[in-house]
Amino acid sequence: MDFFYTIIEYTVRRLKLLLLRLKFLYRKILSTEKFVKFRCNICGKICRSPQDAVQNRELTSCYHCGSNRRFRSIAAALTTELFGRIITLCKLQSQKNICGIGMSDALIYGGILQKKFTYQNTFYHKTPRLDITSIDAGQHNSYDFIITSDVFEHIPPPVENAFANLYDLLKNRGVCIFSVPYHNSGKTQEHYPQLYDYQIIKEMGRFVLKNTTRTGEQQSFDKLRFHGGPGATLEMRFFSKADLHDNLKNAGFSDIRFHDNSIPEFGILIEKNALSLIISMRKKQA
User: How many domains does the chain have?
Assistant: First the structure.
């Protein structure tokens, strides 16, 4: 039965990508908008896609594998940190001596990483499970790389504990490829700073967060913001760039780099002052 559903999901995905390719072709014929040619550094295939789609962090712009700018930036940052240059993921040599994990990684690149490295994608809500707020000492110093993309905005406070655990999971000089949505100015906005004993329930057709603080105060919040649709993953905070950098530095990370350079040949177009860039950082040598 699982195999049957896998085949259906694969077929639906391929049809969606075919429709996207036809949509791009239609736009190219009938409009004057600018198209760009690039080689996807995940699947290795050539695309000709609208520039606005390629620049967009989340829009699918490779109609072969379904990657967007964020996924290609993750792949570029990872191979640069591991090997000193950008290497197309599908062309990587198998190196099972390199050990890594992902935190809810996209299958688009996670599937390739599993073939190339000793890599496991992990999740909070299902197996293989990783709760970054609570790890045991036996997991310390285990990984050459960790990828966590758009996860830490959903972690319950205090988020500092999760940053410290992320650091502890890495081997000496291990690399983390990281991203969250963030503003370029201001302070991080914690939506529920006193969160302690909470649940999300549905009242009168809408989701409501009920919280009991450590001191016993009862709190209720509506107008919740979910990523992935109502009832999915609740946004706990919106980072600022400066506070995020401080979080990483205070956790012990070094070589913190916000990847703000365009790499047009691989479909990575970064506008000036772009938000929510991919970040790489390393664990210090003990």
Answer: 2
